[in-house]
Amino acid sequence: MQYFNAAISSQNRFMHWAQNSVNPVLFRSLRTGIWLYFFLLLFEGALRKWVFPGLATPLLIVRSPLAIWILFRAWQAGFFPLNGYVLTMSVAAGFSFIATMLLGHGDPVVAAYGLRIFLLHFPLIFVIGQVFSHKDVVKLGKIVLYISIPMILIIALQFFSPQSAWINEGVGGTGSAGFGGALGFYRPSGTFSFTNGNTLFWSLSAPFVIYFWLVPRQFNRLILAAATAALLLAIPFSISRALLLQIGITMFFALFILMRNPNYLSRALVASVGIVLLIILFSDTDMVQTGMEVLTARFESASRAEGGLVEGTIVDRFLGGLIGAITNSGDIPLLGYGMGMGTQAGAQLLTGETGYLIAEGEWGRLIGEMGLFLGLLVIGVRLLLVFKMGLFSLYEIGKRNILPWLLFSFGGITILVGQLAQPTALGFFTLIGGLILSSLKKAK
Hints:
Distance between the termini: 24 Å
Strand order of the largest sheet: 1-2
Number of domains: 1
Number of strands: 2
Order of helices and strands: HHHHHHHEEHHHHHHHHHH
Shape: globular
Largest sheet: 2 strands, antiparallel
Oligomer: single chain
């Protein structure tokens, strides 16, 4: 624990140097770039579906040029993140890129598309961690909760509207953005390109909802109640098992905070009473009852197909995917099939059709693209990062800084097994990693 305390002290000292020694204009431009990355993440899908459908393809990677600019400005400021995580990822990606061109699929565009994950978005985690303060994270959380109120109206409209309606328009203005649900209803995508963005947004919202209930005088209680209601309504309207599971995990993390520090218990009771009242208020409405029926049907059909809720849905999709990626790697070439091949965009460029050429799970994709050794190296870096973030966040609870621990309830899983082949998932991976690091700093 002494090592971790020293590491956090070192980080705080570095942030003091960065914010007081770097050109203020340069530092503000970095913060502006990060905020733009955040808003593009939330509304990139809306641009591709409703505003500029003709530019849907280039907008797919619109955050990558922004990431290049942010990293360049960070280099100008003298704190480009050359830590062990970034260096290891960069070296592994570099070797894999060379192997891809010499022994793999050999397509430079597909390989570059895969390479951007490691060289652009992963280092951005640490830039966000250095530039953003604890106050910035709280501010971002408030914005998330403000946005959640109109967002619930959007997904409710998508839920009850036919797939031919404009609100369910797909990327590029063709097809629909809805995805298979149950009982004739489809999973809504919100302002995102695909339904996973909707799930990730509400998963990010949950830690902030709980945080503002437990830490008083930080947020308007009326808006907080509305955002809490939006989160509760998002569960049935999203038809997402992953969202329900993630909210349950976040609540378990909150319960751990109450066990460690009973001072939060009275505030938790107030929040619990409010949540119960909201559930009673909405449970008798026809719209919510329809949503719950659809969600229940989705659980039942998916559990039958996957062999049960616990064994099929949770164990197989999480642990099974992790273990299976290693046990099923016998036929994979030593250096893999090539970077980017496991992405939907890579499959489109290589074969003309979208799909999973390697594996749907993240670990299986990494090992398939990079080979067993390099794939496990990248997985190990992510595992170590999650382990240290978890320890730092746990330590902060004793210092009455509960925000990192709550964010880690979502970020730990996202950083470890998040599907980075999908651009929206990659954006949330980058954002939540940076927010956890930023929230570890003492609030001033």
